[in-house]
Amino acid sequence: MPERDEVSWNSIISGYVGSGEIEKARDLFEEMPVRRNIVCWTSLINGYGKEGNLNEMLGLFLQMLVSVDDVGPNSATMVCLLSACSSLSDFKLGKLVSIFIDVNEIPLNTILSTALIDMYLKCGDLEKAWRLFDGISCKSLVSWNALITGYVQRGLLEEAVRLFYLMQAESVKPNEITMVNVLSACAGLGALELGREVHIYLGRKGLDLNVILATALVDMYSKCGRLIDACLVFVKTTNKDVALFNTMILGLAYHGHGRDSLAVFAEMEKNGPDANDVTFIGVLSACNHSGLIEEGRVQFSNMVKKQKLIPKVEHYSCMVDLLGRAGYLDEAFEMIQNMEVPPDSIIWGSLLSSCRIHRNIELADKIGEAILSSQDPNLGFCILLSNIYASVGRWKDVARVRRLVKEKGIKKPSGCSWIEVDGVIHRFLVEDSIHLQSKEIYEIHEFVTNQLKVEGYVPNFDFVLKNIDGM
DNA sequence: GTAGGGTTAG
């Protein structure tokens, strides 16, 4: 074997790590005739981290600390550890790594700070993340992206959009990853105008419209009610993967285009990628939203028997809702009882609302018990139950539900809706008067309501939930 | 040797 220096050993080891041949890399690493430097150690540590083997990764790191090679971990080593903790959501270990960095005064460069920001955002410690971000003297695009991504993933969508503007004000140019996150925020906010601007920007910059960006666009357009634009992006995208198909199937399903949604699914079964469990959430919702009962039954059995997918509570939830609405209450009830997963209050609530529609008090009684004794009773369902009792004059039961709600301290955050007009997001709460044009808005609302009456609309007060004191 | 991305019921 020809003599090799440290540097060429490093590149051989990292080559094997890069191509996923971690065992080969490890064997060579053990037999190396020259001193193993920090690059070599870090390379192998990273290899274990990337394949999700935290135990081996940590073992190797500890081995390094006591090895005769006498190397100390540097910033890159810590980035590898943090990156593994973050992708495997092991935040306990991540915090330990962070403490190690502090104690050993490992220098914080931009990359290490960014890795720490990512970790702290995922744990929900926004303050620490911000302190780190402020401390970066040379904020990179990736640092901004980590911050924006973290905000989007925590559901802080308006703030994420604000960060996006702030980033541009600092003359940092966004890339695909920034745009995916901004589009995701737009989808959640219903911010069609900003979403469109992003789409136009992508076209103008000639940025590669990869399948991830396409998915984010399709999702944004569907959730903002622009199904035609969603379809256009979907059709134009080559190399469609399962997530893109799922997004399109769900988008069509939401908007009541059950048949079209199923057609996309059929196309996927024929020429596309394999379906997964998310696909069937879309397929079953398509059947549900379009009242395709028989099709729903067929697809559910297709999922279990042909595709060998194990149904989750979400799939059962779709089926229970589908069957319940159509009046097959006993079948829906039986399905909940025979599931191999524990029912949550949501699935019970769905069946309960079907009981109300079909006025099945006996079943509502049974479900009521299940909801009230469950871990997470939902206030909405308690009110629903109480209204069902009220509708048949069972006032004692109404009082019992009300007492339980008080005792358990069940609360519900107030509902909120918002709309974006000319890039400004307007937010509304029930019966609020916060908006500056509140007076005009209520006037128009009254006008529309009157117009509906003129056109012959008669509201069905039967289904309006009664507000009960203390609930 | 090193940081960041899309789809999930009611």
Automatic annotation (TrEMBL):
Keywords: Repeat
Protein name listed in UniProt: Pentatricopeptide repeat
Species of the source: Macleaya cordata
Entry-linked PROSITE patterns: PPR
GO molecular function terms attached to this record: RNA binding
UniProt-listed Pfam families: E_motif (PF20431), PPR (PF01535), PPR_2 (PF13041)
InterPro entries listed in its UniProt record: E_motif, PPR_At4g14850-like_plant, PPR_rpt, TPR-like_helical_dom_sf
GO process annotations (BP): RNA modification
Residue windows of the PPR repeats: 5-39, 140-174, 241-275
